[in-house]
Amino acid sequence: MTFTLEAPARPRHRRRVSQMIFRAATLFALGLVLIPAIWIVLGIVLRAIPHFSFSVLTHTSAHGGLENAIVGSFIIMVGVAIIAGTIGLGAGIYLAEMSATSQRGQRVDGLLRTATEVLAGVPSIVLGFVGYIALVVGLHWGYSLLPALIILSMMVVPYIAKATENSLAQVPTAYREGAEALGMAPGYALRHVILKTALPGITTGLLVALAIAGGETAPLLYTAGWNDQMPTLALTGHQVPYLTYPVWAFYNQPSNSLRYLSYDAALILIVFIVTLLVVSRIIVARTQRHADIRR
Amino acid sequence: MSLVRTEAASPSNPGPPSDSASVRERLRNAETVLWHRGTFVAAVLPFLGLAFAITVVAIKGWPAILVNGTHFFTGSTWQPGSTYGSTVYPHGVATPQGASYGAWPLILGTVQSSAIALILAVPISIGAAIALTERLPRSIARPANFAVELLAGIPSVLFGLWGILTLGPLLARDVYPHIASIMPDVPVLNFFNSPTGHGEGLFTSGIVLAIMIVPIITATTVELFRQVPSLNQEGARALGMTDAEVTHSVTIPWVRNGIIGASILGLARALGETIAIAMISGAILGHTAQNIYSPMTTIAATIVSQLDSSFTDATGFATATLAEAALVLAVISVVVNVIARFIVHRTGKLGGPVGRG
Q1: Which residue of A has its CA nearest to B146?
Q2: A88, B151: Cβ pair inside 8 Å?
Q3: CATH code, domain with A196
Q4: Which of A123, A263, A277 is facing B150, going by the closest CB pair?
Q5: Per-residue DSSP letters for chain A?
Q6: pLDDT tens-digit map of B99-126
């Protein structure tokens, strides 16, 4: 009597085919994600390049350029980084490190945490509308820098808080214990040990927030307005230009020069997003090389 | 994990004032208290911001809620009324004569476009997440991950620009006519029958929304897959299971709730998307979509496209109606988000960006 170790031929064949179909299907799905990504970037770059000239970077929109929009977007992003960065960092530190011990305190903390997450889920156009009703009209600030900063900060504070909270949660307990054993006061340990360790994660969260602030359109339309002159640093009363506006407002204009300006603004936005992504990748890669503490 | 562990450093009890305590000691305690109070203020601000936003929309929308009543949710007319006619006062609210607002087409458009996006995005995202976590060569996996992050970071106005100038015309010329010609004229499927339009409409909006939410669902699902204990997967493989069987009977069951949560997060983003839809939808008011290619609009797109012209209504009723629409949108998004976060939290994964526009 002889045994054969081979299984019957047909089922095994079927399994191999099903394996191949499965892998092909997942790779196909991956392709359906990658193709639009490449297509959008290339589509926008190729549309803009033939008409792009560097004079766009040095002239205001009044003279067929985008310098005012670039400067305006930069001002808005710096403002958001300062306001939302401070608040988001503080909120993240509180939620991660300062949680209350009493039962009532814990309930308050839970409420604050939920509110932060719910705020992240409010659509940006709703916040923009609120900014228009309450700040631009209600407080007579007019389309200007301050309402734009407040509304964008309301949008991105939850992201910064969440990133801060997450990266603080990943600081190893040994670091805290070491700091305490060395007799550091909690505040001192926070500044010199805990925040330092969590800094890369916090920075990445801040970059994500900047990407959102730089790429938003809807909430800015009715808070910042638009201006074809160079922006000022006046907080109220002066409209602020920003890069997403020309894309939205000029793409369907009859004049060629305005449409090209729309494509140029789109190109600059793409370059900006890719730069932010690469920077955040470098930060993550550099810290991971030195860290012995990663998950 | 509490930083404030010692009694002496707690803000409610900043330590017994003792003559022997050095200035340095007091400073250290003061710093701890300062950190505690300062970060508490920062943590309260998002709560106040949320309360402020909802209060503003509710107060501004209140007259519209009174006048529009339930017609707002069932009616399809969007009539600002006569700007030059007389003002009438239903429920004591000043409105232009003939003003009648029904948001049913907006609500339906929001739900339809988000549903198309979800139907397209969920299978693609899960497939892509499997491909990204399963034995892909590094030379492909790294650029692929970068592309997913890039897709997540592209501003929505650029999706709109690409959708209206590149994708929409292409679909209307080369794809929609073929779909329309093979679809039989039976209920449900006749929604796909011609006319196929010019590429601005429901289907194009749904496809672009799908592309926008795919990176959210993919990234969250990849994170979830990485949390599946490798022992379970290795055991399944050792029993001779194929990749498909491991995925179906080990990986997916382990993270099912998380995937549902991630999909709902994507849905929340699609519901609140504004600028891209305002560009691609065809922005038609007062009609529901006749077929899947028809122009339509959503709540968010209507707010952004109608706010300008609502100023011409001197009674402010048009703006109040937009506030009511904003309130409806905010409530829908918040409810969907809370459900998603609840499900995702229970599986231990934290959510990603939502609700941008």
Answers
A1: A277
A2: no
A3: 1.10.3720.10
A4: A277
A5: -----SPPHHHHHHHHHHHHHHHHHHHHHHHHHHHHHHHHHHHHHHHHGGG--GGGGGS-GGGT--HHHHHHHHHHHHHHHHHHHHHHHHHHHHHHH---SSHHHHHHHHHHHHHHHHHHHS-HHHHHHHIIIIIIIIT---SSHHHHHHHHHHHHHHHHHHHHHHHHHTS-HHHHHHHHHTT--HHHHIIIIIHHHHHHHHHHHHHHHHHHHHH--HHHHTTT---SSPP---SSSS----THHHHHHHTT-SSHHHHHHHHHHHHHHHHHHHHHHHHHHHHHHHHHHH-S---
A6: 888 889 999 999 999 999 999 999 999 9
CB contacts < 8 A, A to B, total: 322
Spell out which residues of chain A touch residue B31, defining contact as CB-CB under 8 Å.
Answer: 185, 187-188
| CA–CA gap between residue B155 and residue B30 (Å, rounded) | 44
Residue B235 belongs to domain spanning: 104-300
**CATH number of the domain within which B118 lies:** 1.10.3720.10
Chain A residues near residue B146 by CB distance under 8 angstroms: 277, 281
Supply the ipTM of this predicted assembly.
Answer: 0.89
B340 falls within a domain: no
A32 with B247: Cβ contact below 8 A: no
A180, part of any domain: yes
Number of domain units in chain B: 1
Q: Which of residues 25-44 of A touch B (CB under 8 A)?
A: 25-30, 32-34, 36-41, 43-44
Q: Is A65 a domain residue?
A: yes
Is A37 part of any domain? no
The tens digit of pLDDT for each residue in B232-269 reads 888 888 888 888 888 888 888 888 888 888 898 899 89
